UniProtKB/TrEMBL annotation:
Pfam families per UniProt: Transferase
Gene3D superfamilies to which the protein is assigned, alphabetical: Chloramphenicol acetyltransferase-like domain (3.30.559.10)
Organism of derivation: Helianthus annuus (Common sunflower)
Name of the protein described by the UniProt record: Benzyl alcohol O-benzoyltransferase
Highest taxon of source: Eukaryota
Length: 268
């Protein structure tokens, strides 16, 4: 998406062709013959539907949260020594998942799922061409009992996130592609699920269609089929001129109050 947007931006400013020429070879990521699913993919596992694992979508509310250097440093205070090498994405994602779960107050034995989009372009050997327009994004899934997620320190959730992210290799992507063939392109499960994606490096805020760079590049609201399921990390600048990440969170009203209080504990 960002590659296409930047191409249109360049041509709107007079370029006769985009600086990164498109590559259309969809066969780069064809399924293998025969297909071989070599990794577990819990994001597509069947889930038993109960009232406990369905977020009530009535009386939902939305709130944006800004995470600049000060906020990220505050979250890192809870990171154990052996995980100090975690990225901003990893510590932020683990923190939001944990705070969100505490706020929703699920059954202790409920399986809570976290999914996040990973760009796999750099995982291949030989590498995927720079201008490739096919889908190179996969959606690894982390699963934890609610009791563990709520009661154990942040390091527990953080380690799960880091391991899932590190598991995305070329073989993992091939396994996902083959699963699409074996299971007939199943949809990921949304029960007790939180999905995040980061657009902080996509460059959408740098797109210039002739009247300057974008002030904001992201969704206008939390308009989703399942409210509160999905959060985007977007580049932003706060009132003090600090660069950071803004995250839109959607939750039932009582849960939002608990979420804000839990997050405040971590940030102060």
């Amino acid at each position: 998406m960002s590659q296409f947007t930047m191409a249109i931006s360049e041509m709107a400013q007079g370029a006769v062709a985009p600086s990164i020429l498109p590559v259309w070879k969809r066969e780069f990521l064809y399924a293998r013959d025969p297909p071989r699913v070599t990794f577990p993919h819990p994001e597509y596992d069947d889930v038993v539907h109960t009232e406990k694992n369905i977020i009530m979508i009535k009386e939902m509310t939305e709130k944006s949260f800004f995470f600049g250097p000060t906020e990220i440093s505050a979250l890192r205070r809870f990171v154990p020594e052996h995980l100090k090498g975690c990225t901003t994405f990893e510590v932020l994602t683990a923190s939001l998942w944990r705070c969100r779960t505490i706020a929703l107050q699920p059954s202790p034995e409920e399986d809570m799922r976290l999914m996040f989009f990973v760009n796999s372009r750099g995982k291949f050997n030989p590498p995927i061409p720079v201008g490739y327009y096919g889908n190179c994004v996969v959606l690894p899934c982390v699963v934890s009992k609610a009791e563990d997620l709520c009661n154990k320190p942040l390091g527990y959730a953080l380690e799960l996130v880091m391991k899932a992210k590190a598991s995305v290799t070329e073989e993992y992507v091939r396994s996902t592609t083959d699963l699409m063939v074996v299971k007939g392109r199943p949809h990921y499960k949304t029960d007790s699920t939180y999905i995040v994606t980061s657009l902080t490096r996509g460059g959408l805020n740098k797109a210039n269609f002739g009247w300057g760079e974008a002030i904001y590049a992201g969704p206008p609201n939390d308009d989703q089929d399942i409210p509160g399921l999905f959060s985007m990390y977007l580049p932003s600048i706060n009132d003090n001129g600090e660069y950071g990440i803004v995250v839109l969170i959607g939750l039932p009203i009582p849960a939002m109050e608990l979420f804000i209080n839990q997050l405040k504990v971590m940030l102060t």
